[in-house]
Amino acid sequence: MAGKNKTVVERRSECELVVTRLFEAPVEIVFEAWSKAELFQRWWVPKALGVPLRACEMDVRTGGGYRLEFGLDAANAMAFYGKYTDVTPPSRIVWTNEESGEITVTTVTFEDRAGKTLLTLSELYPSKEACDEALQGSAAGLPVQFEQLDELLPELVA
């Protein structure tokens, strides 16, 4: 089943990217993979990058926060952090990305499709330039990340 469904990345406006994919697992399971740190860290970073996720702190509730730290060692670590502004299990997670000084808002929705999950990720950037940069950088990794999530889901369903 893994790899069967395609990840679609599209630009909806100057400042918005939307990514969709159908996952072969129930909404509750896919939501859990996004909301539990011990599961999230198993699929979020593309393995081919060779950069480990050194820290994964997630308080996935409205008003909670997160902090992800990447790097081979503490001296070269990069941190990403923000707040969860809307968490509605198992259908929606909205968070801010605040590390750049400009706030990006990410919304992920989980829709039931006959026992499968249609996932839609929308990223709203503060400027066209920030969106352009994401399209070349972080958004380019999402298909790989979603493949890794696809590989993890059968284990969670079992």
Describe the structure.
Helix 1 packs across helix 2. This protein has 4 helices and 8 strands. An 8-stranded antiparallel sheet has the order 1-2-8-7-6-5-4-3, covered by helices on one side. It has 158 residues and is of the alpha+beta class. The model has no long low-confidence stretch (mean pLDDT 92). The chain has a single domain, classed as Alpha-D-Glucose-1,6-Bisphosphate, Chain A, domain 4, CATH 3.30.530.
Q: Which keywords apply here?
A:
globular; 158 residues; Alpha-D-Glucose-1,6-Bisphosphate, Chain A, domain 4; 4 helices; 8-stranded antiparallel sheet; alpha+beta; single chain
CA-based gyration radius: 15 Å
Low-confidence stretches: none
What is the residue-mean pLDDT, rounded to a whole number? 92
How many beta strands in the DSSP annotation? 8
Task: Report the CATH topology name.
Answer: Alpha-D-Glucose-1,6-Bisphosphate, Chain A, domain 4
CATH superfamily: START domain
Helix percentage range: 25-40%
Total discrete domains: 1
Query: Would you tell me the structural class of the helices and strands?
Result: alpha+beta
Distance between the termini: 14 Å
CATH architecture label name: 2-Layer Sandwich
- How would you spell out the order of helices and strands? EEHHEEEEEEHH
Q: Strand-residue fraction?
A: 35-45%
**Total of DSSP H or I helical runs spanning 4+ residues:** 4
